[in-house]
Hints:
Radius of gyration: 19 Å
Shape: globular
Number of domains: 2
Number of strands: 17
CATH topology of the largest domain: Hypothetical Protein Pfu-838710-001
Largest sheet: 8 strands, mixed
Strand content: over 45%
Order of helices and strands: EEEEHEEEEHHEEEEEHEEEHEH
Helix content: 10-25%
Amino acid sequence: MTDEVQAAGGLVARDGKVLLVHRPRYDDWSLPKGKLDPGEPWQAAALREVHEETGVRARLGEELPPVHYTDNRGRPKTVRYWVMEPTEVPAFAPNDEVDELAWLAPDEAVARLSYRHDRALVAAWARGGGREIERKFRVRRLPEGLETAPTRTIAQGYLATDHVEVRLRRADDETFLTIKSGDGLVRAEEEMPIERDRFERLWALTEGRRIEKVRHLVQHGDHTIELDVFGGANEGLAIAEVEFPSEAAARAWKPPDWLGEDVTDDPAYRNARLAG
């Protein structure tokens, strides 16, 4: 027997847009998914959950990398997603689990989704996987209304900080191992959720190479600005990051006036450098 929660769902795509669901119970936006029934095959559960939550009937495409994290009850959870092509899209009727749907372009979906693992999945699918396209800014002043923005408390520790970075991250109750390489606007990135006990064993190896920060998710147009306010040795520093689906979108984006110098290409503002 295992205590692991097993769930399946779909990245439903039509005409270049991704289907998101709003769950009133949690007041969040996510990809449609749900737990497997006893003895139910993963693929059947994925199709069933998409239909039950959205009314959409679809056919399965490629399977995406599985998502692993710890749920809000402390249990390990695995969600397997498939890209899906709709075959029937009826008028939506709100139900007990979902009260609103949104068909959004990938960059809009990334901005709307509530959870990092969902955002990473959609962003990787949209760009073919394995790359992070991101601009980074110093913060001239904190924006008005910051106290109402969603936040996450983040601790990061580095196992390696050379050209290839190997990083551990705890974000609220989720734990990840991330590998990055390269500099500037476009970097290679692979992020993998890991079990909490494995995280704790590896965390001890990052002593002296850690940062702590509170991340504020600030909505600006169709993008979410991740505004990090640092603590510890970097107390008082505020850095903002914005992810994009393409290099063209990144270069065309106009930041709000509360953002200052663009430090995307300055290695002094890489988190790995700040941790050292």
